[in-house]
Amino acid sequence: MRLLFKPRDVKYLGEGTLPFGNFEDTTEWQPITKCLEMGAEQFPDKAMFKVANNNGEVSESYTYKETNQWANRVANGLKDDFGINKGDKIGMYMLNCSEYVVSIIAIHKLGGIQVPINKDEKGERLAYVINYSEMTALIVDPGSLPLLEEIAGDLENLQVIFMTGDPNEVPSEIGGIKTLPFNSFDGASSENTGVEVTTSDMERCMFTSGTTGMPKGVARDHGGILMTVRAYLQQQGVRSEDVLMSILSLGHANAQVMCLFSAMGAGATAVFFTRFSASSFWKWAAGCEATCVNMLGAVAEYLWAAESSEWDKKHKIRIMLGSPAPRNLQEFQERFGVRVIDGYGSTEMGMVLWKDPEDHRPGSSGFPMDGYYTELRDPEDITKVLRPFWDPYEEPTPPDEAKGLLYIKPLVPHTTLNEYFKDERRTREAFDDDGFFNSDDLFARGIDGRYYFAGRFSRIRVSGENVDPIAVQDVAIQHEALQEAVAVGIRLPNVSDDEIKLNVTLKAGAEFDPVEFSHWMAEKVMVAMVPRFIEVYEDGFPVTATQKIKVAEIKEITDKTWDRNKAGIKFSARK
Q: How does the average pLDDT of the chain come out, rounded?
């Protein structure tokens, strides 16, 4: 299949070329690491990626040649010294670092299947991902050690752990599992592995929020990377002299595909930061000479709320991907001197909708990308396809009857979700008989053809993380004082992310302290799953005549609603 590579207005293009082409012809696609290998030959001394320290200062830089050779040593070491072969699953559980970048590339070259684990997972959920994925090797950083030691006795399939950091401080074992320093690969061959990998081979098993309390494994092939890289280079105008910056975790698809792999595909440079800082963001961007960056969730609101500084326009960023774009788009762009492009994607499907930088129509997520067919269906009757009738030029807010569930049909094989790993039922439920995927997200489509995001149907998004409310209440109900728990997402004014409100009833005679509960829950789950709001219903939840909970009522913030922020209780993600 040949995809259209759209031309861009020159003011939205980076400097340089596309040395490896524009990936239009899907029959010629090869795994993205072939671009790294070609770059190592054509421009060996050019920076492939850089990593900043916790203060935002670029402290490490690796050329295309160095990156390729280092990744080869890790891949060959895994294969030749530890018997890890094509198709085996290798986990990664760490903060952004150079070893994380190289591990991802090495797993690709080995033909292995990467299993990146959210850096904030812990306890039972962390053990579940390690065991359920059937990974045989795990690469971690020193900060992961105490979290692994807590669950080491529950790990089943893991054969070896590799740890970054000072080799002299790496334990010989964790819970009886052999543990070695990451530099164990240093003596392996730096030549390309010779393992044959194609775009139809499985590339990742990435765990995201599940509907039964535990994360679900999204299995995707190498072709999915090429699909998104092609679109990213097209829509954001990325070229070989660009510097792509990411403040997002490499445990997420965004940092991997739309920073590392897109830089690789364009012959450009990627820069990774260990954390996000609204007050330092533009200064860091100037320091690494970034030209492109992506935002997720409420990042735009945090940047806007930060105090103005000399760095607001003292940088080289020309274009930003916002998912979603800031609500005060024009003011944001003028203040920071950037162009923000909105889009929509998911771990399962990749980037499905994308706005053209030349399109200044506010509020939309743009049009479907080449390689996808999309339609909206009635949430109450998914056999009914909605026809666009809403005119966004006449009526800025879409009526409820114009809002539908986004269904997506991939047109290019091996580019989207293969399956939810080892879960046939959930995979069947996700796709209909015609191969359409239910995104679980609501959109309105105007008569202008553009898609406008209207909210999430069942999932919620907190601090950039997809959170399943059922998973939240499944954990909450384990607390000794709770009889029932219902978690809902609340969208506060002028904020693009959700907040969790947990509604509870108590066991007879039980005492409940929301402060104690919050700390209890923070020990069990990632920070994004800890509710901000809690309300106790002493007389039971409000219900309809048919005994269904009145969801609209329990979503209200009342004078009985406890607010963790007002109580001054904050939990930090792992740093």
A: 93
In this prediction, residue 545 has a pLDDT band, given cuts at 50, 70 and 90, of low
Q: Alpha-carbon distance 197 to 187, whole Å?
A: 24
Q: How many Cβ atoms are within 10 Å of 549's Cβ, its own excluded?
A: 17
φ, ψ of residue 22 to 5 degrees: the values are -110, 10
> How far apart (Å, rounded) are the C-alpha atoms in residues 349 and 345?
7
How distant, in Å, are the alpha carbons of 217, 240, 304, 315, 534 from that of 288?
34, 16, 21, 9, 42
Of the pLDDT bands very low, low, confident and very high (cuts 50, 70, 90), residue 212 is: very low
pTM for the whole structure? 0.86
Look at the alpha carbons of 523, 525, 527, 532 in this order and tell me if their dihedral is positive or negative. Answer: negative
The full DSSP string for 282-319 is HHHHHHHT--EEEEETTHHHHHHHSPP-TTSSSS---E
Rounded mean pLDDT, 454-471: 77
For residues 148 and 3, give the distance between their C-alpha atoms in angstroms, rounded to a whole number.
Answer: 45
**Residues 396, 450 contacting (CB under 8 angstroms):** no
Amino acid at 385: V
Token code pair at residue 104: 């991802």
What pLDDT does 498 receive? 84
